[in-house]
Amino acid sequence: MTPASLQAARERALHALLAARNARGHWTGHLSSSALSTATAVCALAAVCRAEPPGESRAALRAGLGWLAGHQNADGGWGDTERSFSNLSTTLLAWAAFGAGGDAEEWAAPVAAAEAWLRGNAGSLEPERLAGALAARYGKDRTFSIPILTLCAIAGRLGPTEHAWRLVPALPFELAALPASWFGALRLPVVSYALPALIAIGQVRHHFRPTRNPLLRPLRAAARGPTLRTLERIQPANGGFLEATPLTAFVTMSLAAMGLARHPVAERGVRFLLASVRPDGSWPIDTNLSTWLTTLAVQALGGSAECGGALAAADAPAVRAWLLGQQGDRVHPYTRAAPGGWAWTDLPGGVPDADDTAGALLALRRLGPPDGAVRRAAAAGVRWLLDLQNRDGGVPTFCKGWGTLPFDRSSPDITAHALRAWAEWGPELPPALERRVRRAIRRGIAFLAANRREDGAWIPLWFGHQEAARGENAVYGTARVLLALRGLTTPEAEPLAEGAQAWLVAHQNGDGGWAGAGASSVEETGLALEALAVQAVPGPAAREALRRGAAWLAARVEAGPWPPAPEPIGFYFAQLWYSEALYPAIFAAAALRALATKRPSGNREPEGPPR
Predict the structure, then answer these.
(1) Does residue 294 share a domain with residue 271?
(2) 190: pLDDT strictly greater than 90
(3) Burial 558-593 (b: 16+ CB within 10 A, else e)
(4) Interhelix angle for 290-301 vs 3-19, to 10°?
């Protein structure tokens, strides 16, 4: 590798990222098509079609079945993405989709192959065996196991109706009639974002198998109307709960199955599903991650030319205005989140969360000198994150103090992102708010210290690796924590940073790249390199790791089409994998730019746009 080859790779990566903007000047990306999403959408539309004349829903249903048949893995199962290994949840849902669609003769081959896979991996097709295997996969978290069993019961895959619903645990949907402020204390068996499923799936189970408890039966009957009104109130205007096909499909399917296909929530759910189906008949796991991708892209580019980055000064105002427009300005009807946060998307189903709020704050810092509007937005975003910090010092995704289930408890990657945002905005804030930030940073560092693995690594919440034990991705988690620690000046951060750096250096692959497991990937190599490059004067081991990693990444950028096909390292709700087409471009560009500047985070030297 020569300086010229590294520069050429950097320019190609930055140009590709800049070229990926949409017509409005920000980034939308492209999420992978999902067999799981497609199967749930097909089942929802099938339930609706049983109550309505055939039409657009029937055509989308058949196209979805055709896509599933054409994207079955060679072993007979399905994974979450086209590059994912077969798993029980997705295979069970796809098999149920063919049952819901009528098990027509044309689908006999994929159904038979799926049944062979299920027998081999669950033991048999007996409903009790399938339910037990699903419970073993998810443990105490019922967020996804109960919806899957509900879908299978509605599709007829768990046997006769009376028998099938015995296998579906009841959900306390009546609790949704209580004040939202009580939810955290109730320790519900589902995570905070699953309230729509709690209501709809709880109701359909009660419809087919009411409780025998003489006290609960009238209570649940009385709660049906109020909780349906809650469901209607929290549904976004476009019908898509969280912009997520599976969640929206579960709700729509449940309402249709109990005779409410014409309910406004179900009708809006159908409209969302029909609007989000792709031309090939598939559905993605979520509509898009536009806010998340835009904030990551701005950081990867180094911001605007005014701040030494690669985004033209003339283009930065439009991106900044768009980001400011995505900040929540009212209490969110779904999670009751206060104003001041950002969601992952600009679409109605987005919900404010910590990761995207931190990302937006960091992006705004890099889009030119802050004016009054930016300062006000930043102060509100910083307060929003401060108010979300848990008692353990860590930062959760959506809701403070809700519980210990995934996506509600504190996590290292989200905490690290918040630390970066606090550290970069702290000096710009009013004195009282800056003091709060300093205290929050100390508590956040203490959380990271307490939640480090014995080998010095951190495990993230939102990213994984399908070949690693338990699907974990220590490369992503450790790189994100190291990037945050290098931007802090507190003495407690330095030993943690040294340990994180040593771990990354020790876990570099022989070819110079990095991966959570198996072969090196562009995404994970970019993440590790960016984190290692922010040290002002790296030691010999880190310098050698940087040299080898830069050579690997530069060769990948220069060889073949760019960006490459993405890896399924994204970890969505309830152990669902996804890939995003922009991740390779973003993480590679961020690493190559960090290698070019070789300055600590927050002390960028002017660089200008690529030639």
Answers:
(1) no
(2) no
(3) eeeebbbebbbbbbbbbbbbbbbbbbbbbbbbbbbb
(4) 150
